[in-house]
Amino acid sequence: MVSASPKHESILKSLNNAQARAVSSDAATVAILAGPGSGKTHTLTSRVVWLVDCMGFRPEDVIVATFTVRAAREMKERIGKALKGGRENKIVLGTFHSIARRYLSAYGRHIGLSQKFGIADDADSRAIIARICKRLQLAIDPPAARAWISKKKAKGTEAALAASTRKQPAKPTAGLQELETCYKEYQDHLDRSNLLDYDDLLVRCVELLRKFPSCVANIQTVLIDEYQDTNGVQYELMRLLAQKQGRITIVGDPDQSIYGWRSAEIRNLWRLLRDFPGTDEISLEENYRSSQSILDLSLLVIQQDKKRYQKLLKPVHNKGSRPVLRKLKSASAEAEWIVSEIRRTLLMSGAMLNNGDVAILLRSAALSRHVEGALGKAGVGYKMVGGFKFYDRTEIKTILDYLRVIHQPENNDALARIMNVPKRGIGDGTIKVLIEEAEKSSLSLWSLLIKHCRGDRAAKTRITKQAEQKISGELLRLLNGVRKRVTEASDNTPFGLVETIEHLLTALNFQKVLQDTHPDDHEQRWANVQEFISLAADFVRDLQQSGNDALPEIEGLQQTVDDDVLPRFLANVALAADAQKGEGGQESKPLVTISTIHAAKGLEWPIVFVPAVYNGSIPHMRSEDGDEERRLLYVAMTRAQCLLYLSYPVYSSMGNGERNELSPFVAPLGSCFAKKGPCFDRPVVGQIAQILQRELAPDEAVFKNLPPMFSMEDNVFPIDPDEAQKNAASRPSGGGEGDQQTGEYPRSKRPRLSVPTLVSQNNGEEQEWRKEYATTMEQASNFTVSSLPGFVSAGTHQVAITAANAAAEASQRKERAAKLSASRRPPDQKTLMDFHRTWQSRTQKLPKPAISPELAARKLSAGRPTIHPTAAKPRIEEDKSERKQYACFSSSPTRPPAPEAAVGGEDQDGPPSPVQPALNLPKGLGGAGGLRRPAGLSREGIAPMDKLKKPFKPLTMKRL
DNA sequence: GCGCTATATGTTTTT
DNA sequence: CATATAGCGC
């Protein structure tokens, strides 16, 4: 398998055994199942390099598909580093959507697609559907209709076909009828406007590749990142792209499947195994990212899902600090606590950690408000990724709409939006009537206007003389003029993209328009426009630099050469969603990252905060799939390398003063978390330094820089807000900002029905304090998974570090970790395949496994399941998808089952019995070696790493 | 057609 | 509680 050639060597040397096997596998189809932090991207990029450099495939015959633009960018960059000579630019690399767009713009006319199709973005389809529903007076919820249509498209022709032959729907629900009508109208509208929506890009590309397989005749191999997120169409597309050679490599992790709502089907994994027998399966299990405590706890969360593949996460790093679960009073207190904790952590680390090492991950973008406010107030720089999009700002959308109409006059929606911007005396009503008139006479709005203004055909709609003049004199003339300058290369040089935009801005006197319409913040908006221009300039530059993304010539099939910048720019805007603000070169100061959890997938940070971990946020009240919400939390937690903080506000920030309930995903695990941030003494900081392989700052450096009045502990905010509130009444000035917070509380609004409090406590707080303190001290060694009932730990170890020997210890550890991964042979990987065969031989058809769970479990066991699906899985999957299809009709979302352990566990206010007795150690005794193992702790809990020779036992899951 | 005020409404995730 | 929409007066 491993050849001695230097080329091979250089690729393989940075890989562990399993990774190397994956990279160099000779199998046509390779499935890599990779847990978080297992070097997934590195493996995939290495395989690309391997295929090109060692297997000799031409870069232009390789397709790499990712799900996000960011992943595509990163992949390209990393491949570029390994492949010499800029060959990465020749690889067909991008998101599924952008790859589909490339094929469609090159060959689309063979399936009757206009040369100049545009892309309907989210806002477009929403608006179109909303209009249709209103016009036809459909009694359906437009967003639901949109989701339904999208699902229908995303399911893929194959699945749709199967579904229709299997069962006659026979349920002509009134709603269904309307949905169908809406679907048809919507599609008609798109066709008329020459638009494809996101799903259409995939659907039409599938159609193209079915009818004209020669488009991809050159393709040797196809690689898919984040495979667990593929939906039905994407699966078909993948197969079709690879149809010539059938060589496919996929990388994925079912536990990180968080796009079910976008019709991602985990079932595609089985489909792949069914359709490509002989697939080589490889699991990547070593986790190079996170501390052991973080991994252990993340596993506890994900294992609440009883019907997932069981997969291992083998920690490579040290135990680290125990993750924190913090209770705050309100969302704003939560935000301020986060800021104070960031400050404390960074200061206590010396200069080892900075803002760039911190991420705040949110379930929904809307939650960022408080956090942004608090960060801003404290003067901490931050960047928000995901959520609001630059291109969605009204001033930018206006310019984009102008550009779109220049490119595609028949785009009625875009034209309608700019007709009266700047004000030309055409009201919404008039525009609506005009559109309807245009649709009735099957004209585009554009041609209707042209005809009207030329006098060829007077519009029935009454337009004021003044408006008419403005339309014809300003709007039409301007647009026509620019279009001519852009397309006609005859005279002079045609307009470039930037020139076009600048010309538009001048002609519209856009700055003035902004001043008039937005007197308050026109400066900011104008700055955005400037930014937009520079983004356009960047785009043009990148395009020239990386050559255009033309596909290689295929004999006998005519390509449309598409070297217009404008359509490419517009497509890029629609498909890229967020403008990359980084602008490459000089990095300014490091910034805290605020991100949605979805957008954070694939990334990592030393310090991660996950606020708002309450029922209704995670799981989100509107979610239909509780398991997916749990996976979401898992993804968030596994982004953290060293420090992980979960938190939630006890009271809802929405006026009504309702109490929030801790998320059911963490409620049963409450006792596994620390109740406040760690004390950053040498051992704690030393472990962070080890994981990050950074230089540990000397003590003096740390203390020298501590500001006066700085609290070294996480004690500025009360551990228990209810308690604090009660105490605040009797003891007004407790000291610190925390107590000031107390006053701000919505309590005044509605006299809080007495919050349950413990009665006796004068010294209660003090006791709490001591316990917390002890926890901090022992956290480095005592907390183990195995102490929970029903769990066998995957293996843990402990370390003792002092400031003096930290460095030596670090190198030893590295060695040990290296030995560990080297000594372990890749476990037998065939389990999933075995299962599949057994299952297939008994059932023939994909859905409906006829095998009993017990039998399957016995077949599988053999003690070494790297991955094994629970036997019931396929059926459940199937059921679910059936249910989901009609989900928009059911008013009651399915609730996630409450984890069993929650019952009988802690109550709201009764502190749980701690997992292990709190040891009360004197401060400063940093050495963890002296700690005794508390009674009842299993041996595995503290086995030193180097004692573990054999592979870790798989985690057994009896009961939580 | 435009701009103001009162009301309701409603609160994921992304290509 | 904060934004989008609807309705009203100019």
TrEMBL record:
GO terms for molecular function: 3'-5' DNA helicase activity; ATP binding; DNA binding; hydrolase activity. One of its GO terms (biological process) is recombinational repair. Residues 874-885 have a biased composition (Basic and acidic residues). ATP binds at residues 34-41. SUPFAM superfamilies: P-loop containing nucleoside triphosphate hydrolases. PROSITE patterns: UVRD_HELICASE_ATP_BIND, UVRD_HELICASE_CTER. It catalyses: ATP + H2O = ADP + phosphate + H(+); Couples ATP hydrolysis with the unwinding of duplex DNA by translocating in the 3'-5' direction. One of its GO terms (cellular component) is nucleus. Residues 292-602 form the UvrD-like helicase C-terminal domain. Pfam families: UvrD-helicase (PF00580), UvrD_C (PF13361). It is an enzyme of class 5 (isomerase). Residues 950-960 have a biased composition (Basic residues). Residues 714-769, 856-960 are annotated as: Disordered. Keywords: ATP-binding, DNA-binding, Helicase, Hydrolase, Isomerase, Nucleotide-binding. It comes from the Eukaryota. Its EC number is 5.6.2.4. Residues 13-291 form the UvrD-like helicase ATP-binding domain. Belongs to the helicase family. UvrD subfamily. This is DNA 3'-5' helicase.
